[in-house]
Amino acid sequence: MGRSTGKKRNANSTNGFQKQCNNNNYSNHNSHLNGKSNGFEPARNGRPHFQSRSAKQNSQQSFAWMKYASWAFGATLAVYLGYMNAWYFNTLHENRLWFSNIKEVEREISFRTEAGFYYSYFKQMVFAPSISEGLYALTHDNDTENWRTINTLERFNIYQEVILSIVYKALSLVQNVQAPIFFYVNTVFNLHGLYLISLYCTAWLLSGSWLAGVLASAFYILNREDTTRVDFTIPLRESFAIPFIHIQMALITYYLRPTLTIAKQRVSLVLITLSSFLFVLTWQFSQFVLLLQAIALYGSSCLGMVPTNKVNRLLLIQGVSILSVCALQFFNKMLLGSLAFSFILAALLDLRLQERRPSPAGMCTRVAKLLCHIVTCLTLMVIINVSIKFTIGVDADEHIFKFLKAKFGIDNTMDFDARLYSCNGAFVFLPMDTIWRLTRRLVFPLYVVTLTGLLMTLAVAVYQNWRKQAEIAKGKKDDEAPIIDTDSSHVLSDRPELAYLTIQTVLSAGLAATILRLKYLWTPHMCVLAAFGICDYRIWRALLQRLRISSETAIQGIRHTATLIVLAALLYITLDKVYADLEELREFYDPDTVELMNWIRQQTPKATVFSGSMQLLAGVKLCTGRRLTNHPHYEDKELRERTLQLYQYYGQRTPKDVYDIHKATGTDYIILEDSICYARASQQGCRLPDLIDMTNGHMYSGAKADELHLLKKAEVGRFCDVIQRQQPEYTRYFVLVFQNKTFRVYQVL
């Protein structure tokens, strides 16, 4: 509540008012004699002419209209930039593939690996006789994993495909205008237009200027190699999920403002709940992002930067979102056993305990208390997580922790799953060339400067807050409570969202530095904070006041000029490449894969079962609808074990071993890829055949000296190579039925 500066009326106040009037009349009389005015218009015909109140009111109304006009222009510009972002990525996608002109099978093949796997469910639902039959087929799926009936809505995050297919089937007008694949692609690009609007609004909210939104949008679009990959991985889960998490963060930025009315807070919470729910619904790895966000919220509350009641509400929203999606996914165990859910429960419990305990008076005591609460919260998280996993039997995510242990050298494992992730280029540490590109395009240096300033400000704010709370505690103890202005107890009192975003971006940077693929969660933060740092009014006011510049007009002019200069420099550096990218016209060309898919559709029955690499089988499912033995969605322990067994055809195994394995899974055809069998390793021991040999305990190319005692020389040659010789021990079990320059298909007899 604001403070009233008026005084209660009494007799003395009346006398004071009369005295003030007399003084004003005297000064006004002198000013009229000098032909000037002090609150009045100049004298007319020798008589003072009083200025009407309407002039001042008109000035205020004019200022209000200018403010509304600026807001309307900024909002319109946000929508326009969002539209242009969607158009830009759609154009790049079209120019790279000539997507509108190639055959349908080529369009589908262009959805590589798991992208094609997810899109296949949209296609399946669109061409289902009815929505109910389509949903039944998804919940009783016998084709995705042969001889296993699975509920795909439980196992995979494909509700977005279900919703889009229902919308497409319901809108006959859209069906007449767009083919299903174009509707799907355009929807994803439009969602990323909304994503850009959320970044624009976050920068606008932080700085108070829509110019910051323009600059953040420019940073995002013109650094697209490092901010997004949606133009070539359209159906991936993060292509749907990342826009929702940044919409949620924009809403949290608004919600954490201390001046919001109750009604605005409630609306914000509803929208935060919706965006959080959609984020969890669309990505199986959302739990790790929510874990970082929960840590940032918990940390900002422990430091006293964000009100605990608001943090509790946001943590509850996260927990409710996880539970809601868990229920929609037929009680998916992986969500219940996630670290995010366990941490949310632990944080809520610990924050509740903090509210019941009085704050210590000493600074050292406060630091000790903070460390104690952090340890308590982490311990509770581990206890809760282990208890949940033990109770419901969760083992689907164990490969993730094996990978992390191997990555950080905690366990020098030769586990196949851990090595498969470690050898994937998307899961390496962030390379320095990424930082170099971001530096050349200005965003990284501005981000570093801004983040450094924010961290210093956060440290000062925490110190000020703890010191004043210590004074309050000491005063209460001495019965001499000092008068503390709680509305300005520290430098971030009226900007708690900055404290939260500072912690959040540090955690996101750590995640991106660890896993390259997750840089797309960090770089949008970078764009927003860099734009905020160059356009924030308070930053410029603090800097210019040191130079003895305090004019409001000068401060506003300088900060907007600086923003425009940075924007102009960015455009100068990057526009040539943007135009070159837009002018580069290519065409999708993969005749060998097209030939393979056409052969499968024309020469094999619908119920035929295929075995092959996970990436290729996703395309087989999408383009042909045939049954599979394995697929790229790797979050199931039984499937991971099956995949390792099936991949023995790239190992040094006998034909009888390979035959028995595939007969046990009902395989009719094996697809072998020469690009895998004869691959050259980019890293030592990272070819798929090497990984299989390593797992089987066989000597592999490039084995390390400390591994030799664990390996032995195989007694047979590599199956995928030796089978080409058509020796009797191989033709007894397998017969070649299709071959081109890339693929060989063998029928299992």
Description:
- With 749 residues, the chain is mostly helical.
- The strands form two sheets. It has a five-stranded mixed beta sheet with strand order 4-3-5-7-6. A two-stranded antiparallel sheet has the order 1-2.
- β6 (734-739) and β7 form a beta hairpin.
- The protein is globular and about 100 Å long.
Helix content, binned percent:
55-70%
Q: Report Rg.
A: 32 Å
Protein structure class: mainly alpha
Q: How far apart lie the N and C ends?
A: 82 Å
Report the mean per-residue pLDDT as an integer: 87
Strand order of the largest sheet: 4-3-5-7-6
Main sheet summary? 5 strands, mixed
In short:
The chain is mainly alpha-helical and 749 residues long.
SSE topology:
Blueprint (H helix, E strand, L loop, with lengths): L10 H23 L7 E4 L2 E3 L3 H45 L6 H6 L3 H14 L4 H9 L12 H4 L3 H12 L1 H6 L2 H28 L2 H13 L1 H4 L9 H19 L6 H21 L3 H17 L5 H21 L4 H4 L2 H18 L6 H30 L5 H10 L8 H7 L9 H9 L2 H35 L18 H19 L4 H17 L1 H10 L5 H32 L7 H13 L5 E3 L2 H11 L2 E2 L8 H10 L8 H10 L4 E5 H4 L10 H9 L22 H4 L5 H4 L2 E6 L3 E6 L1
Parallel strand pairs: 3-4, 3-5
Antiparallel strand pairs: 1-2, 5-7, 6-7
Helix pairs in contact: 2-9, 2-10, 4-5, 4-7, 4-28, 9-10, 9-12, 9-24, 10-24, 10-26, 12-13, 12-23, 13-15, 14-15, 14-17, 14-23, 15-17, 17-18, 19-20, 22-24, 23-24, 25-26, 27-28
